[in-house]
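fyi for ur records
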Amino acid sequence: MKFSKSIQLTSNARRCALATVSIVALLGCGSAALADEAAAGSDLEEVVVTGSRIARDGFDTPTPVNVLGAQEIAASAPANIADFVNTLPSVAGSITAANSSGSLSNGAAGISALNLRALGTGRTLVLFDGQRSVVSASTGQVDTNTFPQSLIERVEVVTGGASSAYGSDAVGGVVNFILDKDYTGLKSSLEYGETTYGDGENWKYNITAGAPFAGGKGHALFSAEWVGQSGVQTIDRDWNKSGYFAVRNTDLSAGAPYYITSKNVGIGIYTPGGLITNTALRGTYFGVNSTVNQLAYGATTGQWMIGGDWAYSISDMLGSNTLIPEEDRSSYFGRVSYEVAPNISVFAQASWAKYEGLSYYIKPTQTGIVIQRDNAYLPTAVRNQMTALGITSFQMGTSNVDMPASGSQMSRETERYVVGANGDFEAFGLDVDWDAYYQHGKTTTHEQLTPTWNNARLALATDAVVNPANGQIVCRSTLTNPTNGCVPLNRFGQGVASQAALSYVLGTPYRDQEFTQDVAAFNFSTNSIEGWAGPISLAAGAEFRREEMGGFVEAQYMSGWKYGNFRVTSGKYDVKEAYIETVVPLFEGMDFNGAFRLTDYSTSGTVKTWKAGLTYAPIEDIHFRASASRDIRAANMSELYDAGTARSNSVNIAGVSTPFVQNLQGNPNAQPEVADGYGVGMVVSPRWIPGLQASIDYYDIKVDGVISFVTAQQVADYCYIQKVASYCSQLVFNGAGVLQTINLYYDNLNSMTAKGLDIEASYRTSLADLASWGAGDLVLRAMFTHYIENVTDDGVTAIDQAGANTSATPDWIYRLSANYDLEPWSFNVTARGISDGKVSNAYTECLSSCPASVAPYYTINDNSVEGALYWDVSASYDFEVASVKGEGFISIKNLFDTDPVLVGNPANLGAENTPGYPQTNRSLYDTNGRTFRVGIRLEY
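which gave:
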């Protein structure tokens, strides 16, 4: 892959500097590590639990906190920690490198961003060791793969609003990756994985070291990781070959369903090498070496047809979206801390991470191409027919078999530097802990497309004629402008386009962007205020944050291309915040937790957030918890300042797939979203069943002023079907009445609501009493999330997505696991599942005598979508050789190679990318198939 040389040189210098500093620090303290081994591990009496700023022993927060330990994560052997977190039922609809291949114009390809409650990745706050990290794209996501995976001690997931503790974005909750700051030793691991089909090969190697120095006053950490993955750039699985799609019914009689789902569905408006779509020659298509053939049409409906030569017409487009992206990642992390006084410690840490990825969107299509009778490449037989029939031109559609698929080559570098201090002091009879830090982070991206065509050059090259002066084939434009450089392109068939012509029409638009984040914060806390029912805890602090972005795009790449059309998005904002939090024991067994935060945005002014919660334990076996919170999400850089993200696609207008350019623009006046969240639950830990713990929690979240945009298809529907005049003005046509652009705008839409239940149970026991030969430790864990309601009201429609398996919120998502440790062996079995659901709660299923369809409440022949159950297994073996501790492991994900459930979604039937995308829900169903992973972990 080709990337900016200046970016490479700069990043290499920083990487070398970071690695050198970290290794020198470790070598310098290596001799002290052995002498001070005993001093390295002292137990903490108080811990800060994510979701609260209070450090308190035994404090149970009123909002649920799910803790994923390093041992549990290692047992699953995921390719990265985010993949493991994504198996939690409360995490739904996350962005992954595999499902972001279509993000060509916003720079989000290759990002792993978490999504709690399916409220959107922007409403889940991701922290690294309790601190924010610089964003990876203008859309505000933080790529969790930039964190040092081998130094993550645990992951804490708070499924409840936490803006009063951390500020903006914590509407759905917080995912906090906790750093193992006291790790001592040297460890490394090597892993390899591939699918049962022999593809998707990937490997990971990391090395981690930590050691105390200066008599235990200091501690140094270093970690490095390298990851590689071979791409599977088409979806060539058997389950994706049946032509299963949802389309407008070809039976238009009264009582027939409006939509139908069916197999053997193909495209009726293009073929791989070109299809004539009008005149008496309709159905003529061009095959290998421009052979002339006749398409057998099936029953046609819009751009689709059922039956006929469906398999051929869609053959070049079907599965052209990437299944598994090609990736190369590397990251380095270093940290040094030192106790400068008995009650003051300072630290400095630095990290650098790089991602390079290649993935493909689809094969680019073009319809409505006007071909003149005198086109020099037109097969003689067709030209003779045109002459005989008096036809001077026709229109053609093609999926451009001789052109490469369109995709992105992303390069992203993230660097982060943090300095800080912490300590304690006594004042006014109170023991006070404090900490302060400054952070600077920067992400630089080089967003480059794979070759895509320039619209003007393609039009010129397509219009090829014979030069009457010399008999050579040239562009018609060259006859009047001999120096225009145009190279004629043969578009009739497969294997006919010259490389010179392709080089002329194709280009690789790109954009360079830079995101910076500066944060300064300090915090104080005490647990020694005497209260009437016990010690009162108090925490307070302030934070300043500045976010800024800018970039560069060559003028030639700003417009006129099939994909890309990049614009520079520039802007910045500042945030000033102060908070206070307290825990007050009200009486024995009951605590009150309250917090308040005042936040001032340079873009939108002052907002207030708060939290109030109660925990009550009438007996030690049962705890009740309840909370209410006011949370916010401020607009991200894209939502504020997007200069116009122009992406090509198609919409369905009156049954016709109509191409257009989507122009999405930011809104500097967007106000923060305001969310009111409520939760109530209980935790049971019966003394008479040691090791058993169970919890159930209900949540209710309503977000007002949702920052979003009405999609292009919705704009078209609201204009043409629901006759909302304000949306018609967003459609821009040329003088000939052809749709050119649909303007979309970020704004504060009406509201979003989410309601559901989280249920969890775990049981730990030793099997020694059952059999001495099997005296191992057994851990059982079950997690369920029931999505009761998930509604976004955009002012025109408000459809509940809970229970719709085309969304991220089926009725139920669950995860059951059993881990058995019998030294030196360890075994793990996990079952991941989702419940049956519907295509849409707005649809009515019927085969005949169907009620009349009124948008968006349509009828459909099959509104059901099956659920799925996936089994994962893993085993590991511990060994020791010459004082080196080792662990070999193997894991198998999707043990029974269960295919994804096919999900036809009529909402996307007019989109250009629908034929190329897999007709399933990749956020719910496994598309890779059975996946093997083996590895070895060593610790010295």
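The longest strand covers residues 406-427. thats all i got for now
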